[in-house]
């Protein structure tokens, strides 16, 4: 039995920490109750020093420090307290804290003190997981999350520039299904935006449009957009101001593109330092998809089998059982959205480039499944495959996988 499953001695001092951005709520207690009034301590060094002074008055067994792992808010204190009290830090997921609050009769009422009471309750039972040292996986996870934020910013920037261009040149940039679309990220799109900002929405010459293209722009494509531009309605009265704003947004967009490209290169280096590099041997799964999935799946030893990993992504169907009642609902969505999206991305890549997965995808659609339903079904197979690769560290073999799938009947 693991030491984390053994109830604590009543004399053990338990420190419950509910993290915040600026202040952490702290309870210090033993088996007889609170040893001091609950306090809110700053996240900075001053708070750690105050906690150490509080603990110095209560000697005995080494303290057990229960901290709720909420995003990245807990990392500063968890790392420092683990250094000061090796092996004494125990981490708890917010879902565990909520379940404990429910058992204590306050599931629908969340306060910092109720969370601390729940953490104390869990620690007394010997629950929790130890604080792992920061390593390559943590650096990879931080890089993946940063890139995800950059991509989200890029999407917003593209939408804003489309709106600005439509105001300056009404009808020039048609949405998909309403004519020839103008992709902002392409050389053509960048040239059109640059001309719209430079000439305040007025049609440019062929030479001006071609010279502002950051890449290849054929003469026929340039002539098409110029002719279409000439047929647009005139710009609004405040076109100069709008064009100036568009120019600044275009500069920010280009810097954002450079940041994403730099982050992609960083992720390639970070992924190579982890066990997740093996996922790049999957067809249709390059560095970005492999890094996104590995960041939230490693260390793979956290999951006893592939089904637990699949359930952690939130793609497994929700189950309800009571006596003779058995219900299977839609996907549970219990895990992180980033983890779920990463697995769906791997399933998508495999369905395009792996013959075995492409065949399975065709079979599922022939049964009447919609594309998204078929991809969710493929994600389960992709999760099993990714789990096996992460455990064995053996590269993917298409023929071996096909033989194994046929022999198992899946």
Beta-strand portion reads 5-15%
Low-pLDDT parts are none
* Structural Rg: 28 Å
The mean pLDDT is 90
Structural class: alpha+beta
- Measured as a percent range, the helix fraction is 40-55%
**Helical segment tally?**
15
- Overall 3D shape: globular
Q: Indicate how many domains the architecture comprises.
A: 3
Task: Summarize the helix and strand pattern as letters.
Answer: EEEEHEHEHHEHHHHHHHEEHHHH
Please give the number of β-strands.
9
Instruction: Give the termini separation.
Output: 36 Å
Major beta sheet summary: 7 strands, mixed
Describe this structure in words.
It is built from 15 helices and nine strands. By secondary structure, it is α+β, with helices and mostly antiparallel strands. The strands form two sheets. Strands 1, 2, 3, 4, 5, 6 and 7 form a seven-stranded mixed β-sheet that branches. Strand 2 and strand 3 form a beta hairpin. Helix 5 runs antiparallel to helix 9, helix 12 crosses helix 14 and helix 13 runs antiparallel to helix 14.
Task: Briefly characterize the structure.
The protein is an alpha+beta fold and 410 residues long.
């Amino acid at each position: 039995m693991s030491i984390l499953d053994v109830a604590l001695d009543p004399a053990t001092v338990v420190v419950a920490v509910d993290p915040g951005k600026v202040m952490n709520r702290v309870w210090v207690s033993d088996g007889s109750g609170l040893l001091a009034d609950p306090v809110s301590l700053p996240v900075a060094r001053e708070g750690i020093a105050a906690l150490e002074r509080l603990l110095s008055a209560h000697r005995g067994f080494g303290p057990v420090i229960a901290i709720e792992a909420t995003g990245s808010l807990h990392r500063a204190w968890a790392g420092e307290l683990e250094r000061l009290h090796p092996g004494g830090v125990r981490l708890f997921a917010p879902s565990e804290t909520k379940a404990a609050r429910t058992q204590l009769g306050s599931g629908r009422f969340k306060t910092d003190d109720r969370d601390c009471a729940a953490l104390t309750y869990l620690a007394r039972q010997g629950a929790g997981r130890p604080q792992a040292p920061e390593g390559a996986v943590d650096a990879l996870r931080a890089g993946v999350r940063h890139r995800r934020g950059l991509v989200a910013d890029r999407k917003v920037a593209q939408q804003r520039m489309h709106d600005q261009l439509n105001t300056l040149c009404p009808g020039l940039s048609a949405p998909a299904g309403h004519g020839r679309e103008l992709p902002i990220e392409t050389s053509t799109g960048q040239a059109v935006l640059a001309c719209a900002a430079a000439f305040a929405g007025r049609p440019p010459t062929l030479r001006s449009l071609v010279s502002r293209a950051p890449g290849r722009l054929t003469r026929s494509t340039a002539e098409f957009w110029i002719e279409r531009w000439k047929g647009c309605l005139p710009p609004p009265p405040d076109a100069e101001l709008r064009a100036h704003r568009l120019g600044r947004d275009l500069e920010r967009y280009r810097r954002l593109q450079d940041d994403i490209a730099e982050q992609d290169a960083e992720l390639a280096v970070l992924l190579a330092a982890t066990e997740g590099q093996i996922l790049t041997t999957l067809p249709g799964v390059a560095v970005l998809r492999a890094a996104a999935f590995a960041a939230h799946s490693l260390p793979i030893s956290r999951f006893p089998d592939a089904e637990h990993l699949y359930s952690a992504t939130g793609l497994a169907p929700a189950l309800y059982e009571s006596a003779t009642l058995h219900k299977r609902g839609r996907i549970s969505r219990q895990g992180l959205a980033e983890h779920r999206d990463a697995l769906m991305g791997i399933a998508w890549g495999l369905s395009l480039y792996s013959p075995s997965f492409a065949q399975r995808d065709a079979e599922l659609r022939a049964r009447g499944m919609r594309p998204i339903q078929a991809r969710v079904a493929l994600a389960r197979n992709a999760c099993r495959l990714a789990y096996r690769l992460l455990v064995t560290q053996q590269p993917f073999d298409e023929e071996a996988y096909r033989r194994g799938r046929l022999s198992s009947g899946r």
